[in-house]
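Working notes for the structural subgroup meeting. M.R. asked for a predicted model of this chain before we commit to crystallization trials. I am recording the input and output together here so anyone reviewing the notebook later can reproduce the run.

Input as submitted:
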Amino acid sequence: MLQAHDRQIASDLIGHIPASDAVVLNHGCGEALDAGRVAAACGKRFLCEAAPSAREKPRAMLGGKPNVAVVSPEEVEALPDATLDLVVANSLIQYLSRDEHVALLATWRGKLKPGGELIVADIIPPDVSPLTDASQLLAFAWRGGFLTAALAGLVRTSRTIASSGPSTASQPTGPRRSPR
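Returned structure, recorded in token form:
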């Protein structure tokens, strides 16, 4: 069952898609539970996750959609320049080192078309502890009626971080615009 949280993320994202033929990259897509609805609103959708195991669920869920590609960061780097209309990084940046962050911004800048947009969302400030972040997520989940699913998501995220490294974790809470 799709969580209200995931539906809201997808709705927010759809609101930022500039045209029905837009090419959209969701870098650090996580499970991408409502990715099919977002894909229906654009021409091509790239879902990027660093760990091969993290790409399995979106690929299984969306494998039959011709306008969806589940890719690795290396495959994003191999895209031709000026390919993307929109890049979304939701709950990703805080898991990167400064060097990884700078390199990723340079990649996105090159892949965005002139006038393309970058949306960076759900950034945990460096002075906020993981415990505080998790407690805020759980409070939000309690109010939204999806506490059990949020707890399960935290467990999956901690397992992903432990097994694959920090850049594969994604628990989005909603996009906000960031200047390119």
